[in-house]
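To start, an entry.
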Amino acid sequence: MFRGRYEHTIDSKGRISIPSKFREILNKKYDDRLVITNFDRCLVAFPYEEWFNLVEQKVSSFSLVRKETSAFLRFFYSSAIDCLIDKHGRLLIPQTLRDYAMLQKDIILVGEGRFVEIFAKERWQEVAQQAEEGFDQIRDTLANLGI
């Protein structure tokens, strides 16, 4: 499971270093392939196996007749790209995805269990602040889920 938050930078070629803790998980449980796509003004990176299990299998049960489903799938799938981690533990983020997530220099990688989110540092600060400000509501939601 991916967890934790790591601050890194993206180089001029669009490469990021995968945190060593995340590389350990990838080496033990997965391979060097990640599927990366856009989502909520950040990027999500799934190990290939998790992409297949979490996304592709579930999406096959969605109704394509629903307008919202079709719109989401177009957005999500059209930007999904298979990326390989190089022998130095780096990942090249394609320009289209960097542009979408506004990744320029300082980035934050966040472990989200079975996938990783990649944020521009400024966007992460917004998301973290919103979560803090809405913590009472989040607490109620978690309590209703039995957590």
